[in-house]
Amino acid sequence: MDLPLVEAWELWWSGRQLTDHSLHGVSVIWLGRIGKLLSFVAGCTIILDLIGPERLVAWGDRMRDQDEDNSAVLGMTISSAGFALLTAALMRPISQSLEGLPLGVRVAVWVGFLLVLIVLASGFVLFIGPVIAGLGRLLSTRQAEQVMRAVAVPLFFLGFALDYLAS
Question: Are 57 and 136 in contact (CB under 8 A)?
Fold first, then answer.
């Protein structure tokens, strides 16, 4: 049932669960998820502000200037962790969908997953340094800093309110 905002808060305040309701056509559960995401983004902006643009630029430059051996180790670590997580998360659904296939096809699917993770990790290692340094340079401007601070607090409160409504 679609509710106006005031009525939704009244129902929530009375102790009723709003999982079967929606606001302006959007499920309250999805509003709660959006609220969590908004709070996370606001928290990230606050953390970036605390770190400061100078430190971000220095860190990004250090990551970009690392020698290839460190990048390879980092890439393999990320690949290994990603492969372990992917295997744990998808083992049952994929193994069920691959049951009737020959062993060679199943092995090829798992090797394909590993190769995708290696490519993603390599891309991460190559681009994370310049991205962090660029973000630091962007945040070093006074206007960007003011906009970030002006947006972070309302995002946090809006996200908190949406998440609270879905609880």
Answer: yes
pLDDT digits (tens, 9 = 90+) for 53-110: 888 888 888 777 765 556 666 666 776 777 676 666 666 565 566 667 777 777 777 7
CA-atom Rg of the chain in angstroms: 22
Enumerate the domain spans of the chain: 2-166
Q: Per-residue pLDDT averaged across 34-50, rounded?
A: 89
The three state secondary structure string of 100-133 is CCCHHHHHHHHHHHHHHHHHHHHHHHHHHHHHHH
Centroid of chain to Cα 136: 19
Q: Which helix (H) or strand (E) holds 160?
A: helix 142-166
